[in-house]
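Q: Please design a sequence for this.
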C-alpha cells in the first residue's frame, strides 16, 4: 500500500492465521491442487448454500469456466450466435468469455439508483435468440431477482450470476450467486476475502458440476467421479484414466496455499461483512441527502464492496476535479467499475448489439466514482471524505 494514502481503495485482511496456514501448506510438500482445495470447496459451498463449488485461479476464470460448461454440456448447449443479455456497467471479464465462445452480447441499461441490471430493459431486449441473462451484482449490491424472474417468466432463458464483487450479499435471505444456474466469485486482493488470486463457481446442477471439473483441468477425466455426465463411466484402472481427455479444457486450477488461506478467510468473513455494513450505515448517514452527490442505492442485504457516488447536474466540480481533490488528500478513488463498457474500443471485436439508449450507464460513465470499503472501522476516514467534498467551491 502507498504509505501516502490516508484512505486506500483496498487493504489486506490477513493476519497471523493466514501466514501460518500458508506456511503449513508449504511444509506439506504439496503445492498443486489437492485435498486443501477440496476442503475449501466444501466449506464455501456450505457457506453460500450451494450443492457444488469448484475453485479456480481467479474470478475471471470462474466466468470463463461457467460459459465453457454451458457450451460443452450434453443438452441445451449454448451455440455460436446465441444471444446473452448483459448490463452495460460491469468488468471486462463478464463479457470476454461470451465473445470468446462466439456468443452475441446484448447490452442493456442499468437502473439509475442501484446501478444493477434493469429488469425492464431485460424484458425489452428478449428475442427468440435469447438464451441467457448474465446478471452482475455490482459493488456488493444484489440484483432484484424477483423482478428479473418476472421478466423471464415463461421463457427458456438461463440466468447466470457474476457475483465477483458481492460475496456475502443476500436477497430475500438467500446468498447472491445462488439464484442462477451458476454463479461466480472472486478472491482477489481488493475483494471481501482474499486468497491472493482465486475464484469459485457454484451450482446445484450435477451435470454442470462435472463439466466444470473436467474443463478446469485440461478436459481430462482424472478429477471426475467414476460415473459422470461428461464421459459416462471411468475405467477401474487409474493408469488408463491418467491422460484421457473428453472436452477441450484449460488449466484454471488454483494452488493449495490459496485454499489454505481461503479456509482462514472464510472463518473471518461474517465479521468482515458486519463491519462493511456498519461502515455503510455511516456512509449513508453522511451522504444520503447530499445536495450534489448521489450515492448508489443498495438492497438491505448488500455486502457493500465499495461506495459509489455520482455527481449531480448541480455539482460545483466535474469528476476529474473531484478525483484530483481526493487524490491530493490521500483518498484513493476509481471510476465506477468500467463505466459504460459499450463505449470501449474493444467492442469492435464483439458480435454485439445495444438495446435502446444506455442513458444511466452513460451517467455512471461520465459522473461516477467509487471509494473503498473495508473490514475495519472507517468513521474517521468517511468523516474526512465528507469534509473534503464539502469544501468544494
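A: Design:
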Amino acid at each position: 500500500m502507498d504509505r501516502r494514502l490516508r484512505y486506500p481503495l483496498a487493504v489486506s485482511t490477513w493476519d497471523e492465521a493466514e501466514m501460518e496456514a500458508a506456511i503449513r501448506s508449504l511444509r506439506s510438500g504439496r503445492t498443486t491442487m489437492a485435498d486443501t482445495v477440496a476442503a475449501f470447496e466444501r466449506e464455501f459451498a456450505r457457506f453460500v448454500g450451494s450443492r457444488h463449488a469448484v475453485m479456480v485461479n481467479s474470478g475471471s476464470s470462474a466466468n470463463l469456466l461457467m460459459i465453457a460448461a454451458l457450451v460443452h454440456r450434453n443438452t441445451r448447449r449454448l451455440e455460436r450466435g446465441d444471444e446473452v443479455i448483459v448490463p452495460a456497467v460491469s468488468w471486462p471479464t463478464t463479457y470476454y468469455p461470451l465473445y470468446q465462445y462466439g456468443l452475441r452480447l446484448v447490452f442493456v441499461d442499468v437502473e439509475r439508483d442501484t446501478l444493477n441490471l434493469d429488469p425492464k430493459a431485460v424484458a425489452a431486449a428478449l428475442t427468440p435468440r435469447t438464451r441467457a441473462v448474465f446478471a452482475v451484482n455490482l459493488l456488493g449490491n444484489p440484483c432484484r431477482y424477483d423482478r428479473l424472474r418476472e421478466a423471464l417468466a415463461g421463457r427458456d432463458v438461463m440466468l447466470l450470476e457474476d457475483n465477483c464483487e458481492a460475496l456475502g450479499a443476500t436477497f430475500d435471505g438467500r446468498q447472491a450467486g445462488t439464484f442462477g444456474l451458476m454463479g461466480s466469485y472472486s478472491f482477489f486482493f481488493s475483494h471481501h476475502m482474499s486468497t491472493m488470486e482465486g475464484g469459485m463457481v457454484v451450482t446445484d446442477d450435477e451435470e454442470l458440476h462435472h463439466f466444470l471439473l473436467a474443463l478446469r483441468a485440461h478436459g481430462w477425466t482424472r478429477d471426475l467421479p467414476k460415473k459422470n455426465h461428461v464421459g459416462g463411466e471411468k475405467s477401474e484402472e487409474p493408469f488408463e484414466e491418467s491422460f484421457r481427455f473428453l472436452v477441450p479444457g484449460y488449466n484454471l486450477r488454483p494452488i493449495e496455499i490459496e485454499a489454505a488461506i481461503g479456509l482462514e478467510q472464510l472463518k473471518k468473513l461474517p465479521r468482515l461483512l458486519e463491519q462493511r455494513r456498519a461502515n455503510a450505515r455511516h456512509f449513508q448517514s453522511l451522504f444520503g441527502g447530499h445536495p450534489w452527490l448521489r450515492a448508489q442505492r443498495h438492497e438491505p442485504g448488500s455486502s457493500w464492496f465499495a461506495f459509489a457516488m455520482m455527481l449531480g447536474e448541480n455539482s460545483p466540480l466535474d469528476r476529474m476535479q473531484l478525483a484530483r481533490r481526493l487524490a491530493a488528500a490521500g483518498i484513493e478513488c476509481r471510476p465506477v467499475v468500467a463505466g459504460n463498457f459499450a463505449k470501449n474500443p474493444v467492442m469492435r471485436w464483439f458480435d454485439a448489439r445495444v438495446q435502446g439508449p444506455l442513458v444511466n450507464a452513460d451517467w455512471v460513465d461520465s459522473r461516477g466514482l467509487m471509494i473503498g470499503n473495508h473490514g475495519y472501522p472507517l468513521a474517521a476516514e468517511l468523516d474526512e471524505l465528507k469534509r473534503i467534498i464539502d469544501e468544494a467551491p
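Q: Thanks. Anything notable?
A: The two ends are 31 Å apart (CA to CA). The longest strand covers residues 130-136.
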